[in-house]
Amino acid sequence: MQFTSTAISLNVPDVDASAEWAQKHLGFSVAMAADGFSSLQHPDAGINLIYLRTGLSTFKPASAAVNAAGLLVVFTVDAIDDDYARLQQEGVTIVTPIETEPWGERYFQMTDPNGVVYQLVQWVEPTEGYTS
């Protein structure tokens, strides 16, 4: 099997709100869009974010057409402290303040207007004495 691209499809009530948020705060741009649909791309992400309006009749299987609850969209970054400060200044809703796990995962979480949770991560040195 050879993959040619990767995307994650998120069902949200307001496609435009999530798409505009990802463009403004994460640097994505619109690859294609239609009523109830937006596909965003980023030159560094390696994945397209696709937003589908919840309840679209064309969504299959219909049983999977629920809001993107319980899902984390995670991106690894190089300068998490700078990103954290910038996003706070931009008024992004931070739901988990920046913290560092003993194994070296430094991260924070934020939400878009539809409640989708995004996590930015930077890998740092594990805490002294931590063993996996």
UniProtKB/TrEMBL annotation:
It comes from the Bacteria. Residues 2-123 form the VOC domain. Transmembrane segments: none annotated. SUPFAM superfamilies: Glyoxalase/Bleomycin resistance protein/Dihydroxybiphenyl dioxygenase. InterPro entries: Glyas_Bleomycin-R_OHBP_Dase, Glyas_Fos-R_dOase_dom, VOC_core. This is VOC family protein. It comes from Microbacterium luteolum.
